[in-house]
Design goal:
Length: about 160
């Protein structure tokens, strides 16, 4: 299987954009993802896939909790902020509005929806790791359009 061909084919799949958040030693951390899915409603379980070498991934595995913030079409700047290389010691949340769920995980202001999760299971796939999380809390903000990612660019939903 040609990896470049697979990558090109996957670019044809439009997906929502989310920022996965966690906390480590009192400092909030986040990383932009497009690999997020609801896997079960009963029990409520979601899945994310992260590059295992990122600090945010290590903090999630160490702390056992994470949040998923679904971004709206006006949050493209947040998607860009959290998609860059996560540098240890740099706080990307300095100018970002957020609150915390009851487990101390950051909830980004204005997100379309938020999921607070406890790590249920992990499965390593070479440099990536699939993390399944039990959903402990959910918040929904109606009346917004999602930020989408398609063919290497952020897009807005047009109807």
């Amino acid at each position: 299987m040609d990896g470049e061909l697979l990558r090109e084919a996957m670019r044809q799949w439009a997906s929502g954009v989310a920022v996965v958040t966690t906390e480590h030693l009192g400092i909030p951390h986040g990383i932009t993802v497009s690999s997020f899915d609801a896997l079960s409603l009963d029990p409520p379980v979601v899945g994310i896939t992260l590059k295992i070498s990122t600090p945010a991934c290590q903090y999630i595995l160490d702390g056992n909790v994470f949040g998923v913030n679904i971004l709206n079409e006006n949050q493209k700047d947040l998607a860009g902020l959290f998609s860059g290389k996560d540098i240890e010691g740099v706080n990307r949340f300095t100018n970002v509005g957020y609150t915390e769920c009851m487990y101390g995980v950051p909830i980004l202001d204005g997100s379309m929806a938020y999921f607070c999760c406890l790590v249920r299971h992990t499965h390593q796939l070479n440099q990536k790791i699939l993390i399944l999380g039990d959903v402990l809390d959910v918040k929904v903000n109606d009346g917004q359009n999602p930020l989408l990612y398609f063919n290497k660019a952020y897009r807005a939903l047009t109807m």
